[in-house]
Amino acid sequence: MSRFIDLPAGMSRRHFMNHMAGAAALAAPATAFTNSILANATDMRKRHKAAILLWMGGGPSTMDIWDLKPGAATGGPFKQIATTADGVAISEHMPLMAKQMHHMAIVRSMSTREADHMRGRYYMHTGYVPSPNVEHPSYGAVIAHELADQVPGLEIPPFVSVGSGSVGPGFLGMTWAPFVVDSNGNVRNLDMGVEPARLAQRMEMLATIEKRFIGERRGGSADDHAKVLDKTVKLMTSPQMEAFKVMKEPKDMQERYGATGFGRGCLMARRLVEMGVPFVEVDLGGWDNHANIFPTLQNQKLPELDKAMSGLVADLADRGMLDDTVVIWMGEFSRTPNINGGGGRDHWARSWSCVVGGGGFKRGVVVGETSSDGKEVVSEAYSSQDLMASVLKAVGVSLETTFTAKNGRPMKIANSGKVIKELFA
Amino acid sequence: MRGLLAMLVGIAVGCGASVVKAADAAAEHFGIPQVKYINEQVAAGWADAALPPSPAATDGEWCRRVHLDLIGRIPSVDELRGFLADKSPTKRAELVARLLGDDYVDEYARHWTDVWTTVLIGRDVANERVNRPGMRQYLRRAFSKNIPYDQFMEQLVTATGANANRKDVDGFNGATNFLSGKMEEMGVENGVQATAKTAQIFLGLQVQCTQCHNHPFNKGKQNQFWELNAFFRQARALRKRGGTDDVQWVELIDEDFAGEGGNPEEAELYYELRNGLMKVAYPVFVDGTEISKSGYLPATLEDGTRYGANRRRELAQLIKASPFFAKAAVNRIWAHFFGYGFTKPIDDLGEHNPPSHPELLDGLAERFREQSFDLKELARWLVLSRPYALSSRSTAANDGDEPSLGEKPKFTHAYLRQMQAEELYESLMTATQADRTARSEDAAKKKDAWLSQFVIAFGTDEGDDATTFNGSIPQVLMMFNGEMIQNATSTGKGGFLDTVASSPMSNAAKIETLYMAALARKPVSSELSIANRIVAAKKGDVIGALQDVWWAVLNSNEFIIKH
Asked: Which alpha helices (H) appear in A246-301, and where do they start and end?
């Protein structure tokens, strides 16, 4: 943990800044560093839009969670239960979420084509299929990029990933890369162990070397490095790092989210959003259930998910944050309606569900429908880009936004996906 | 521009004349016809695209680059000064010969072991069916002996034996680790990963998507995946527990494959189409070549009749003969030295992904085959070529050549490359003159532990992982404050900084030594003046001042980027 944070507030930080004045700002704009320090802390608590992505690595079987087919040969053993949303039933192993469904919306008509983990992961995170020519920005990079300005005093990175790292910023550049932490909120190597004056001296020396190299037209990665250095120094000295300290939450609050890695991650996401972070991704892996799927879901995966997700949604609602914070639940694809010889389900992308809620989304609804065996979408089918466009609309990002990829080509935000209109009132 | 460059060269290496001579020698391709061929082919691409190349890199830059690429670390101060002082017009070819020769064979083998460990088994240390020390042991031996690449492939694809080197186990063969962890997924022993990775690495073909369906935009068909997979159905990875609950090692064996239909004479397997229908597959290579359908291993009846086939051995022969084999190798090795291959990704040579230099790729592949797949020769051709010797500084006329923007590479200038995590580790060791004799298995473990912080697992059963040494904030924090950097900048007795600080050199010469050790150049005046200010502010605490300078140098983009 950083010594700077423990120093008496105010004095030490100003003292530090005096030392840093000549050394900071490795990258343009030179004033960014000092401006952020001057920002009033209360500004940060102002209402701002944000999104939290609950990423289910491995591909969860959505017909055992959100779109059950009791009685069908493909249906599996789980029963469905009624929820607080009118006419909406979900898995009996999600009893806590059943009490929160009036806040959420299920899209049961997702239909995609990517059933390979890495391709599906990329596609669902970016709205684009992988391309050899260009790397596309993920949800976190896009939303951080679009919403970072609303919290000018934010010193911690605008895109935080708890767990396994998300998908990168692509052509938006390293500035928008996910800041990856573990679910305990530990940030390694935060403390240099030297006094501020000395750090300032080192940074001045470093800035000189960096600038010379950047000035020699060797390409963008040299410049990117300097920008990340700037952010790192900011981070090392920021009192906002408190937001990561999830264990400082009261015990009953920790209990509300569950004593699991994913639970702590969700609680940290709420703390980070409160601090002003526009995008947090929390990962829960272990959904690649090719064998013994039902006991695994019933005894391990669903209880952990149910506790943490319901804790997050209810807490956001209680704090009045849900109107400004979108929650997204999805994996890279789902699992086959057919149950294989090992009692598992394999990869399946043709008909599946995602869940969204908060922000501008309509609450307590179900969008779309699958056939009685779950193998086909029988209503209008939606793609990754449609979901992404809808999420962007729900956090107030304009769908008219067009990025310029590094190669100069215009790139429409969310791959020109169409908003899922049933998700909006 | 020319004047400015000459001045910079003069400042950087203090010996402008030898640079010019070396550049002439490079233009003359050192009498190596393959180098001449590369130079001509790449230059033709420059002419076609109307993009003139950048000037040559300085001797210091080139020396640093070639050390990093061939032996995985920066040059030591002595190595660098020796090279810069050398007046021979062919000193670059001589340095390459040294780095590929007996003097550096251990370091060469260590570096390529690092590179190939990642290619073959990734960086994930969690797979209990893979024994990393075993894999390394095999690779070290293979690269120490520079075994031809076709034999290398054959040994990996056909390996049998125990994957761990243990006193209580006979028949150790470290090469088995390539496949030992790829035979089984979630209790199903079907060699799906073995199929996908073998095709990807040794043929540059991406077949993994066709496991479940015909590929939407390349020619891959689902049957091709399973017909290739059929070659792996005699192989079995047996988990050995050695009296404990945990898997202690794996024995990879070949045994008769009865076929899923129960007829070993025609041992078939079944796969499921997306519509639920089952189809049958026998071993057929990607080019349509069929081998015996028999699931029996080769044997001879009493009457002398021979029957059966070893499917993996047949596969290795087919791979060796395939034009994709040499192309995939050349593409991978080219990308190692130039930062970009002729295709992106480098292991996708399918028709849907045309290469940037098709003729050069084919021509180099042909020459590599003619040279009996000698990896050191291939490396020599690439590092002595003119495009490899170019500066990483783009010019106004060629800065459009930037493959990171999605364009096909033209190789008009050297592209900046992030050091691999292993290269950074070894370079820090070299820069700080860490004790190189303490290179035991313990040291390897320490290195593995350090490297593991860069590995991200994706929570899938396929053990997908990615190494992201990419200059993100956590990695900058690691370089700012981590244990490794604290050791590297330690002022302890007998350490690097202590040695420099207590030498009779002037302060300016001490600072220069730090620059040479890490950046292979002397400091420029703006850097010297700040460094001097730090020394003055420290009032006689020279080692403390050097520590600050050294910290800054090691954290600079110039140190961690290959340029």
From this structure: 251-257, 261-275, 293-296
